[in-house]
């Protein structure tokens, strides 16, 4: 009786092995699907970046699908940071995976700095040299601004301290960008004619943000004195708004 059971078991094992091999090589296997179908599945919106990373680590075929065209990581980038997509041209080649990594790192750095502000300056205003860490950050400035906006848009009354310092840092970054554009404008020759319109300036008034006032300056000033007057007026406006 035992020998009969053993023989039947020996017959079942090869049968199961053959069935598993058939399934692995059949059309139902994921890696056997066309690349377009795999890409469509991975871009369906139900997978997170962590899921895509795990899929990429399973085999070379799936890793190539995730990285070859860049569409998979482009979709992950779009879902997580939709406001940044307007800064990319459809004709530009961008390594979407590397761009995702850079944006992720910038977000972590921005949150780290905001957290440090709440520890260092909880009992006083932020001094001028308090923003020195921000000037040394690596990566596109637009990524840091986007993360600060994400902090400001947190739901309800959560993380109010973080929102307070995120607003200060965001204001500082935008003011610095306007000042750099203005300095570049002042270095143009007197006969250079063009129009320079800076990013809208949000001046804090009464604890809140005033209406956005775009900075406009025409570069065909008649003299250096007029250009300097523009810069002095801008600096006075910054000091008054602090």
UniProtKB/TrEMBL annotation:
InterPro entries: F-box-like_dom_sf, F-box_dom
A matching Pfam family: F-box-like
The F-box domain, residue ranges: 27-76
Gene3D superfamilies attached to this UniProt entry: 1.20.1280.50
PANTHER family: F-BOX ONLY PROTEIN 21, SI:DKEY-261L7.2
Protein name: F-box domain-containing protein
This protein's encoding gene: Fbxo21
């Amino acid at each position: 009786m035992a020998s009969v059971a053993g023989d039947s078991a020996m017959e079942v094992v090869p049968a199961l092995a053959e069935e598993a091999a058939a399934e692995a090589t059949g059309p139902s296997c994921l890696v056997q699907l066309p690349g377009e179908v795999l890409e469509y599945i991975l871009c369906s919106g139900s997978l997170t970046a962590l899921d895509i990373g795990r899929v990429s680590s399973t085999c070379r075929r799936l890793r190539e699908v995730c990285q070859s065209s860049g569409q998979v990581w482009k979709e992950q980038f779009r879902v997580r940071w939709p406001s940044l997509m307007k800064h990319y041209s459809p004709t530009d080649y961008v390594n979407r995976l590397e761009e995702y990594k850079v944006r992720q790192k910038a977000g972590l750095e921005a949150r780290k700095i905001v957290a440090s502000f709440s520890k260092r300056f909880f009992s006083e205003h932020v001094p001028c040299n308090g923003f020195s860490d921000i000037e040394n950050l690596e990566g596109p400035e637009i990524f840091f601004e986007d993360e600060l906006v994400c902090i400001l848009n947190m739901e309800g009354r959560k993380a109010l301290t973080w929102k307070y310092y995120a607003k200060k840092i965001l204001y500082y970054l935008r003011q610095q960008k306007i000042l750099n554009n203005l300095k570049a404008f002042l270095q143009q020759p007197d006969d250079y004619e063009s129009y320079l319109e800076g990013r809208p300036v949000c001046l804090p008034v009464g604890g809140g943000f005033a209406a956005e006032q775009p900075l406009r300056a025409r570069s065909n000033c008649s003299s250096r004195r007029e250009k300097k007057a523009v810069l002095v007026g801008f600096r006075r406006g910054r000091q008054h708004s602090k």
